[in-house]
Structure formats: C-alpha cells, structure tokens
Amino acid sequence: MTHNSYDFAGKTVLVTGGGTGIGLATVRAFLDNGANVVLTGRRKEKLEEAVDGVDPARVLTVSTDIGDRAQIGDLVRHISSTFGGLDVVVANASGFAPGPITDVSSEDWETVRRTNVDGFFHLVQATLPLLEASQGNLVLVSSVSAQAGDWGQSAYNATKHAQLGLLRSVALDYGPKGVRLNAVAPAFTITDLTADMAADSDVVDSFVDRVTLGRPGQPEDIAPAVLFLASADAAYVTGTVLNVDGGTMASTGQPHL
C-alpha cells in the first residue's frame, strides 16, 4: 500500500468512514505498517469486510453515526477500554449535498452539516484528551473544495471550509500541548461516493482536464499522504493542508488551451 515504511507498531489509529474508499485504503495502509486500527461507519457489514482475515486483536469495528455526540463519546470510551489509548485520528467520514443552493432542501443541508461540521467538531472534542495523553495527531481527509468554490456544491463546500477553519484553530491551541492536526485535500477521486460520476466518461474528462497528471485520483493515492502526516517524519508539520490532487490546485482555473 505504501512504498515507504512507517513505524506504527503498537500505535492505535481511528479511521472514521473506514469501510470504503479513501477510508478503507487508509485502514489497509495503517495495518500494513503495524498499527492497531479502529474503524467506524454506519454499515457494519462494510466494516467487517474491510478487516476480513486480519488478526482480530489488531482491529475493532464500531458502527457509529458520526453526527451523534453520544455515539462519539461511546466510541472513545470503547477505544480506551480495548486498546488503552489513541495515537492517531483520521477524520474521513463525509457527507455530500449536490446542487445549487436554491435546490438544497433543509433535510439535505441538515444531513451534510451534521456529518461534516457537527460530526467533525464532536470527534475532535472527544479525542483530543487521548491525543494529548499520547502526544498523537489528527489527519482530516479534506478536499480541494474546502479551499475554493465549485459550481453546484455550495452546501458541501461551505461545510468543508468550516472543517479547515476548525482544524487550523485547534492546531494553534494544541500545538503547545504536543498535538498536531493536519489535512490532506484530494480532488476528484474514484470511490463509492463518486461511482455515478465516474461511470460518465464526459464527466470524468471534465475533471481530468484540470488534472495535470492526466487521471482521476484513486484511494491508494491518498492513503500514503495520510500516513506521512500521521508519522514521525511530519513531526514539525501542523495546521497545514497537503493537496493530493494530481495538480488540480496548481491551476488558476482558466481553460486548458
């Protein structure tokens, strides 16, 4: 999964949204590098499939609604009782509400905000004491959409921008306490969430036109960057966003002539 090896032996890593896509690739990468991994998600069967064949002493699957504060508290207590602590949090769970703002229903807004903003807030708040105790770190799976605007994604972009604001502020507050917080920012990546778009060659071509490396991202492109930021090699990196986007954000947005 990773070309380089990272020493996560004996470390405990929490990956939200760990059953599919970028979360699943990240789970596998941490397992390959020696970590114990806690996976959360809403679909228990996907979590169990993700760790099929893995030593059960090294994994814990917990069905969790990331937007429910009480469930996040239960999750953290479960991690503490099982592994005794927590070294890395990968905040990967995300919701999406497409369409221009006038077409986004109150229910859709509530869902995406509850996952991306409330859920991230609760996760950070609940895990910081454990990360402070372990001198650990958090990596947010963000997006290029957290750094600029997109057509037809106002609700999603707003919530992703909010995540980065929270992350940077907490990085300032907790740096003196030995806790690092960083983010990776993918562009269009082939996952279950984007499967419908990926099936339309015209849509894929429109995304790839902005990618100088000439192809969409894959989950396996993102996971190694997460491991780097979580590792001791990034010990002096905090409050930053690492674009893992094939060069998307290098463009001004003007057409490719």
TrEMBL record:
Domain Ketoreductase: 11-177
Taxonomic superkingdom: Bacteria
Record keywords: NAD, Oxidoreductase
Residues spanning the membrane: none
Gene Ontology molecular function: any one: oxidoreductase activity
Annotated CDD domains: SDR_c (cd05233)
Record-linked InterPro entries: KR_dom, NAD(P)-bd_dom_sf, SDR_fam
A Pfam family: adh_short_C2
Homology family: Belongs to the short-chain dehydrogenases/reductases (SDR) family.
Annotated protein name in UniProt: SDR family oxidoreductase
Organism, as annotated: Nocardioides bruguierae
